[in-house]
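Lab notebook, bench 4. Still working through the backlog of constructs that have no structural model yet. Next entry is a single chain of 88 residues. Request: give me the structure tokens for it.
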Amino acid sequence: MEMGPISEWVAGISEFLAVCVALFLPYYHKRKKEQRKVRNLKTAIKKLGAEVIAGDQDAIKALNIYLIVSFLSDTNADIEALVTQGRE
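Model written out:
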């Protein structure tokens, strides 16, 4: 049984790796996008929460609106948990 030239092995491995990247790259980008959304939501809630604690009435309204919009556009369980925490 002949194994073939090394160039065919390299080409085969390269094709396999290209298929793996093509399959998993969209998942990776989606996951990173969700992580960024959660991070941005945490930052906004902390900032607006600090302003609410300081007694700013406009910040109370802004935080409430921000939490409602975030909840309605929710596609992630982490975001839902953050919104619930922010409303408390």
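Notes after review: Residues 30-88 form one domain. Residues 67 and 83 are 6 Å apart (CA to CA). Flag for follow-up if needed.
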